Amino acid sequence: MAKSVQELMTSNPCSIDTDKSVAYAAKMMRDEDVGLAPIVEDNRLVGTVTDRDITIRVVAEGKDPESTKVTDIASTKLVTVEPQQDLDEALQLMAKHQVRRLPVVEEGGRLVGVVAQADVAKHGDDARTGELVEEISK
């Protein structure tokens, strides 16, 4: 599978500014039908929030989604890839870090896309997709 991340990634993903609330993020994720909300400051990726983060870190803890900022629950130790990286490298990172989505950034941390397990499933070969799902699910 000699494809680059850029060939399969979702370009120009919706992102959220650091001052937005979790409620705003949840609505954006619903409207865009995505499970990851990249958080940016001056177009530079500074964190991510997933639908699971909202469930575990806000809803289950009884926090108010309107007053809780995305930066309060964001993951900031990010695993990212660059657009020109080989897709196999991205798959290895997904498996190693057990994540289903990777933000794609250019030099300086500018967010340009997201590559997801679903992208691989749609465009990759069935055997490799099966291996990826198995590795991530361990």
Overview of this structure, please?
With 138 residues, this protein is α+β, with helices and mostly antiparallel strands. The protein contains 7 helices and 6 strands, in the order αββαββαααββαα. The strands form 2 sheets. A 3-stranded antiparallel beta sheet has the order 1-6-5. Helix 2 links the parallel strand 2 and strand 3. The protein is globular and about 45 Å long. It starts with a helix and ends with a helix. The mean pLDDT is 89.
Keywords:
138 residues, alpha+beta, three-stranded antiparallel beta sheet, three-stranded mixed beta sheet, 20% strand
Order of helices and strands: HEEHEEHHHEEHH
How would you write the strand order of the largest sheet? 1-6-5
Distance between the termini: 23 Å
Uncertain segments: none
Q: Could you say which overall geometry the principal axes of the C-alpha atoms support?
A: globular
Q: What is the helix fraction of residues, given as a range?
A: 40-55%
Structural class, by secondary structure, is alpha+beta
**Number of helices in the DSSP assignment:** 7
Q: For the residues shown, what is the average pLDDT?
A: 89
Counting DSSP E segments of at least 2 residues, the number of strands comes to 6
Radius of gyration, in angstroms, nearest whole number? 15 Å
**Sheet bearing the most strands, described?**
3 strands, antiparallel
Strand content: 15-25%
